[in-house]
Amino acid sequence: MSLSSGSVRQVTVGRTVAWVLLFILLIVTLFPFYWMLRTAFSDNTQLPGHPNSLLPVETTLGAFKRVLGLSSIEEAQAQGGSGAAVNFWLYLRNSLVVATITTVCQVFFSAMAAYAFARLRWPGRDKVFAVFLAALMVPPIFTTLPNFVLIKNLGLLNSFAGIILPGAFMTPFAIFFLRQFFLGINRELEEAAMIDGAGHRRIFFGMIIPLSAAPIATLAILTYINSWNDYFWPLLVGQQENVRVLTVALGVFRSQTPQGGPDWAGLMAATLIAALPMIILFLAFAKRITNSIGFSGIK
Amino acid sequence: MTATTNAPPDTRRSHGDSGAPPGKRRSLGDLKVAMIFIAPATLGFVVFYIWPTLRGAYLSFTEYSLLSAPKFNGLANYDRMIHDSFFWNALGVTVEYVVINIGLQTVLAVGIAMLMYRLTKSITVRAIILAPYLVANVVVALVWYWMLDVQVGVVNTFLGWVGIDPIAFFGDSHWAIPTVAGINVWRHMGYTALLVFAGLQTIPSYVYEAAEVDGSTEWKTFWRITLPLLRPVLVMVLVVTMIGSFQIFDTVAVTTQGGPINATRVIYYYIYERAFTRFDFGYASAMALVLFAILAVVSLVQLRLLRARESDLA
């Protein structure tokens, strides 16, 4: 990889500069995460006096207690909170419910469809698949408006069903993604199983799914992250507290915080609670997630 | 997430031919089984994709406030749009956002990808730069909202150290869109860089070796060899990131909410306001359809560019 044919000295200078740039990039990437942490553990009333303290100001768990609904209104207000009732435990639970059900259903049903598109022969198959793929072109807001009307007419506003249903059956991307992997599975294995008398159901559950465990897991992780981070749809159909997910709750919390002196510590504690599960998921599967983007290339 | 997250390895395999020679099976093939397997997905597809697409198109020709049935009103919504200065403002603001966001992000992503390509293949480095992309838009927006606060934000403290007066990043109408664009550059540049990085690895090393033999400098090699060979990947990345960029909503919704004075009322946010605060569903649908058309044209133009360049390495 030694591209440069210049003098050794030049190479060294160039590489040093490049390493410095990369280092700055990593700092710029990580600093906001650190600042979120630092602020969440600070005392909100003391924050304005120490805007550049690298460590938490008057370290306290007050902000977390506040957003988890564990401190009294007086306590919360004394520490710079709005005093409005917030319960991020509840929102955390709601996010878990929504993301988990969405992921399980979407990946499973998409895998079934992908099997039909990849391994079965039937008239019109490729045309139907093309129609499914074409839906990738439609911007979400266009279908969101009528979907909202539908969910409303079904009486499912402010219910988990209303939040989950549109994403529970498939996404064109999920089917496309899994189909690619199913296509690559060796045909002979399948034929051998058929000779042994296995039906399509057994081949799907006993062979295709186990053989595709890795891509299915990758897809599930990506789906989970997407579902967890989604804001627009739950904002429309899930405003009420009992089904409010973390992203929506953060928006509400931000709009409720006192205008004059916002509860920054509380806000950062809340964002940390919303981000932490994804950060943990990422730390656990960093390699898998990164490689799914890094090495596959786009065609 | 987008369709480019992962296009798995074997796209070139002759697709879908399930092995058995044609004619050995009945012409209907596995139709019965296939119908069972695609039933749930098809149900979801028809109810939540096809039907709303058709219905959305119809609603765009109606007056509809959710309270009574939609009333057909021909092209009235479109006529109104032409004369709606808020609509044109929203389009203008969105385009400004897209240009800043995509311009900055693409240049940075190529730079980052080159840095990684030349310096390190470390998975840790790649994971770190990807991290912001995995955190919700809303979270990212709020963290930066705090860091960029005009009074106590840490960024303004830093600026103070180098003698720059505090900037009202969200409160100043000139700064608001570049600020929102910058925040999303921070969130997306690592992801985009990884896509470019993947593209870099498809360039065979003999091309570089030949350049070295010819005494090309690194700078020249980048402009004359790397970038041209990267073009197909870049165009594809541009198509996908630009479509996403036009749909900016979350960041605006939790920070500026369209302000100050319409400066960040992007098209997605304007449609949302029309539909869900004024219950003007017909008009909102018409604007959504126009946005759909704009995105289709943008991607078609870009894909055509892609095709024109495809043979660079051939």
UniProtKB/TrEMBL annotation, chain A:
Entry annotated with the keyword Cell membrane: yes
InterPro entries membership: MetI-like, MetI-like_sf
Ranges annotated as spanning the membrane: 12-35, 96-117, 129-151, 163-182, 203-225, 264-286
Places the protein is found: Cell membrane
Keyword entries, A-Z: Cell membrane, Membrane, Transmembrane, Transmembrane helix, Transport
Boundaries of every ABC transmembrane type-1 domain copy: 92-285
Keyword presence, Cell membrane: yes
Pfam families named in the record: BPD_transp_1
Family label: Belongs to the binding-protein-dependent transport system permease family.
The protein's name: Carbohydrate ABC transporter membrane protein 2 (CUT1 family)
Native source species: Kribbella pratensis
High-level lineage: Bacteria, Bacillati, Actinomycetota, Actinomycetes, Propionibacteriales
From TrEMBL, chain B:
Record key words, sorted: Cell membrane, Membrane, Transmembrane, Transmembrane helix, Transport
Residue span(s) of domain ABC transmembrane type-1: 91-302
Spans traversing the lipid bilayer: 33-51, 86-115, 127-147, 189-208, 229-249, 281-301
Region span, Disordered: 1-25
Cellular localisation: Cell membrane
A cellular-component GO term for this protein: plasma membrane
Annotated signal sequence range: none
Source organism per UniProt: Kribbella pratensis
Protein name: Carbohydrate ABC transporter membrane protein 1 (CUT1 family)
Topology versus the membrane: Multi-pass membrane protein
Predominant place of localization: membrane
UniProt cross-references to PROSITE patterns, sorted A to Z: ABC_TM1
Pfam families assigned to the protein according to its UniProt record, in alphabetical order: BPD_transp_1 (PF00528)
Family statement drawn from the similarity comment of this UniProt entry: Belongs to the binding-protein-dependent transport system permease family.
BP-aspect Gene Ontology terms: transmembrane transport
